[in-house]
Amino acid sequence: MSKGVKIVYWPIGLIGSLAASVVAASIFQLVWKKVTHAEDAPTALQSEYRLRELLIASAARGAIVGVIKALVSRGGARGFTKLTGAWPGD
Fold first, then answer.
1. What is the percent of the chain where pLDDT is above 70?
2. Helices (H), the chain
């Protein structure tokens, strides 16, 4: 990929990544509420939760965030390619 294409794609990728993070966090909260019937997932600094609960919540959050960000990145790359003819990752 040429330097010019990288420069043009950089803000698109950044905005997509930020949007994907917000969407993924919302989806995780919905899934967590449905599965556990709790308002919020445990965080590392909340001592009332066992380590096992924290690790399960962290793994679920990571999986959801990873999948959503991959979908958004791939969609952004495909859209960019349709507009410019250049794949942003090459």
1. 98
2. 3-36, 51-84
Distance from the Cα of residue 21 to its chain's centroid: 4
Q: CB of 90 within 8 A of CB of 1? A: yes
φ/ψ of 15, rounded to 5, equals -65, -40
34-54 pLDDT, tens digit per residue, is: 999 988 899 899 999 999 999
Residue showing tokens 């308002």: 39
Residues 26 and 64: their CA atoms lie apart, in Å, by: 10
Q: Are 50 and 61 within 8 A, CB to CB?
A: no
Residue 85's Cβ-side half-sphere holds a number of Cα atoms within 13 Å equal to 0
**Domain edges within the chain:** 3-83
Q: How far apart are CA 29 and CA 75, in angstroms?
A: 23
Q: Would you tell me the crossing angle of helices 3-36 and 51-84 to the nearest 10 degrees?
A: 140
